[in-house]
């Protein structure tokens, strides 16, 4: 059963405490209208006709076919709200952050941007996010599952609407797992320890004709540079960068144990020595061409991508990935470390609301919320999540999805559901300033040192010492876990 009642009631109470929306105030920098402030009577063209407005959105390729639907999404939104225009700017995953940061720093961000919920604290500290909690209607709130909505909060504010709630897992080649005598069904439902996982990937290493098939490959370069470590540490007793009493947790001794494991898997040959240069594209190519038994990170959509490539191989039309093989993709959990309970890395990305240097009009704020809800629910969400093989998190999308054909592997569905039972909870209690400091430590110390560790340039102990020093400098000796 979904737990929506509490959130919906909160929104209703907030709605009752807010005065009726008016058109007074200066227009948003992204508004299509003139920059001068219209009088309340000028907010409509004729009696009963709503004022025209444009809502801008910066959106990456959320799913394989997502960006192909932009024109249809714009047209459907305008049909639903004839006075409103949804203007979508496409971005690649590689340049999404740079584009958004450039616009934010210029004081003219898009009204909506598709980002991870873990990035909310960064932009909230900059004062560029729009708190929409008083603008979300009770009907909108009631449509969502409660857990993913919590991820879009920071403190008392609600800053966006979630598109999906998935887990960062790993993925295996069914045939290779069975050849290595790995009971993948048991692993899907019961998980595995690092020690069990390490033995499994050792068994998956095969050398034939001078070529090596690895047991495990994880993307660690480019946009995936921070994923590997952040996913692993959640399974080592650190579900968040901060403990419940707001101490920075990555100074725990278990953090060092994970760093040691990262080097062990490379040093024993289970992973390639050039792992630091493997980006997301190369990682997936290695999996489809049979160069690794297990790949990471893995999302449910990878099953769909593998299935599509299998069809191309079968059709022999030359459009399949070069030298690829047929693959039955299996969702697998990340192993647990240091005797800790497994905690899945929940992925909640969505449509986050931004504001420019000038305060948007109340009318424009309400229109931003309409656009965010349109993108995060109903037909758009049903289509996107079906393409992603992701679970639906709104009733409206679930209803539409009933008419859509699904080819998902039932074992994978069950595996994802099991991992979601152990997903790390949302942490809206973490103060904005602490979250921003943690991101700074990650970007300036953790990511560069991880790359050096992967390349064999520093030891796990060296990296741990560098992260601990940076953490104490940022949070103080009393603000970090001391063990």
From TrEMBL:
Compartments where found: Cell envelope
Signal peptide: 1-22
Residue ranges with Low complexity bias: 29-43
Main localization of the protein described in the UniProt heading: other
GO CC aspect terms: cell envelope
Pfam families, alphabetized: SBP_bac_1
Gene3D superfamilies: Periplasmic binding protein-like II
Region (Disordered): 29-50
Tree of life domain: Bacteria
Keywords linked to the UniProt accession: Signal, Transport
Family: Belongs to the bacterial solute-binding protein 1 family.
PANTHER family: ARABINOSE-BINDING PROTEIN-RELATED, SN-GLYCEROL-3-PHOSPHATE-BINDING PERIPLASMIC PROTEIN UGPB
Protein name from the UniProt record: Extracellular solute-binding protein
Source organism: Paenibacillus paeoniae
């Amino acid at each position: 059963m979904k737990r929506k009642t509490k959130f919906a009631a909160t929104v209703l109470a907030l709605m009752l405490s807010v005065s009726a929306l008016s058109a007074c105030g200066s227009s948003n920098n992204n508004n299509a209208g003139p920059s001068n402030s219209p009088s309340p009577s000028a907010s409509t063209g004729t009696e009963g006709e709503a004022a025209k407005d444009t809502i801008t959105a910066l959106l990456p390729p959320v799913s394989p076919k997502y960006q192909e639907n932009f024109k249809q999404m714009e047209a459907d939104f305008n049909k639903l709200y004839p006075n409103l225009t949804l203007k979508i700017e496409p971005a690649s995953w590689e340049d999404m952050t740079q584009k958004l940061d450039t616009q934010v720093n210029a004081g003219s961000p898009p009204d909506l941007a598709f980002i991870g919920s873990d990035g909310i604290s960064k932009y909230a500290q900059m004062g560029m996010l729009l708190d929409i909690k008083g603008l979300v209607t009770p009907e909108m709130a009631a449509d969502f599952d409660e857990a993913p909505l919590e991820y879009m909060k920071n403190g008392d504010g609600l800053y966006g609407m979630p598109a999906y709630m998935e887990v960062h897992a790993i993925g295996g080649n069914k045939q290779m797992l069975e050849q290595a005598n790995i009971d993948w069904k048991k692993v899907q439902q019961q998980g595995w320890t690092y020690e069990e996982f390490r033995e499994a990937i050792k068994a998956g290493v095969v050398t034939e004709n001078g070529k090596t098939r690895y047991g495990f490959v994880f993307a660690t370069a480019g946009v995936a540079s921070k994923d590997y470590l952040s996913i692993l540490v959640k399974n080592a007793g650190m579900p968040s960068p901060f403990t419940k009493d707001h101490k920075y947790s990555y100074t725990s001794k278990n953090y060092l144990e994970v760093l040691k494991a990262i080097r062990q898997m490379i040093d024993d040959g289970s992973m390639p020595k050039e792992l630091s240069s493997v980006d997301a594209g190369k990682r997936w190519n290695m999996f489809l061409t049979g160069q690794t038994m297990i790949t990471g990170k893995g999302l449910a959509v990878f099953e769909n991508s593998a299935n599509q490539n299998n069809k191309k191989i079968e059709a022999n039309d030359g459009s399949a990935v070069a030298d690829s093989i047929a693959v039955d993709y299996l969702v697998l959990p990340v192993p647990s470390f240091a005797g800790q309970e497994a905690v899945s890395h929940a992925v909640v990305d969505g449509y986050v609301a931004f504001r420019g240097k000038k305060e948007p009009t109340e009318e424009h704020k309400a229109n931003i919320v309409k656009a965010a809800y349109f993108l995060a629910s109903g037909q758009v969400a049903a289509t996107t999540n079906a393409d992603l093989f992701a679970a639906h998190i709104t009733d409206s999308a679930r209803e539409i999805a009933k008419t859509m054909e699904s080819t998902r592997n039932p074992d994978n569905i069950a595996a994802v559901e099991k991992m979601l039972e152990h997903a790390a909870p949302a942490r809206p209690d973490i103060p904005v300033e602490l979250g921003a400091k943690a991101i700074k430590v990650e970007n300036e110390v953790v990511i560069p040192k991880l790359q050096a560790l992967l390349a064999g340039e520093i030891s796990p102990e060296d990296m741990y010492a560098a992260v601990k020093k940076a953490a104490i400098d940022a949070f103080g000796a009393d603000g970090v876990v001391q063990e």
